[in-house]
Amino acid sequence: MDVFNYCPYITQLDDKCYLNVPQSFIFQYPLPPTSSPIFLEYKKFGSFQFFRKFLQDALGIATRDASRIAKFIWNSAEDKFKIFFADYAEKVKRAVEAVKAQVAHVYRFKPYNGSKIPKKQKKSRQIEFPNHNQINQEQSTPYEQYLRDFEFHFMH
Q1: Which DSSP string do the residues of 91-105 spell out, in sequence order?
Q2: What is the signed CA dihedral for 76, 81, 83, 89, rounded to 10 degrees?
Q3: Residues 6+ apart with CB under 8 A from 88
Q4: Could you tell me the pTM of the whole model?
Q5: Phi/psi of residue 81, nearest 5 degrees
Q6: DSSP states of 13-55 as a string?
Q7: Which residues contact 135 (CB under 8 A, 6 or more apart)?
Q8: Does residue 129 surpass a pLDDT of 70?
Q9: Which top-level group of life is the source organism from (predicted)?
Q10: How far apart are CA 93 and CA 55, in angstroms?
Q11: What confidence category does residue 146 fall into, taking pLDDT thresholds of 50, 70 and 90?
């Protein structure tokens, strides 16, 4: 590797891989093994996504800033570097699928078919009193006669 070549590169020592990005002053940043449990939460396994994530972790910056820098560095990288991350991503994907297959086999999860859970149906607002007689408008109450006979007296 040429010291004055500022392209990113990977070094391997004792079966461990290290990320080197001279443009960002990153040297010997250790990459997790492809079978690491940290990848179980990942949804996508793209080569650029892994590079961007490791660059972000190494620099300790926000995702938005890391994306801009990663795009610039990725475009300047050699094909050998991109192929490494494509292979790395494929190995991670296979390892995650193997672990998830073992877990699914042990617990036997039912696959989610995408249907929505039905909402609870609202109960009827009509109140029923089964043991009470309902009073119709034509029926009179015991006080009705008293109210008819009541007289108002006004004082002058």
Answers
A1: HHHHHHHHHHHHHHH
A2: -110
A3: 17, 31, 34, 47, 50
A4: 0.63
A5: -65, -45
A6: ETTEEEEEEGGGTEEEEEPPPTT-GGGGG-S---HHHHHHHHH
A7: 141
A8: no
A9: Eukaryota
A10: 20
A11: low
* Whether residue 15 has pLDDT greater than 50: yes
Q: What is the pLDDT of residues 28-53, one digit of tens each?
A: 999 999 999 999 888 889 999 999 99
pLDDT at res. 109: 55
**Cβ atoms of residues 1 and 22 within 8 Å:** no
**Cβ 42 vs Cβ 96: under 8 Å:** yes
**CB 59 within 8 Å of CB 24:** yes
Q: Tell me the C-alpha distance between 111 and 104, whole Å.
A: 10
Amino acid at 40: L
Instruction: Round the average pLDDT of the chain to a whole number and report it.
Output: 81
> What six digits make up the tokens of 42?
């990942």
Of 107 and 141, more confident = 141
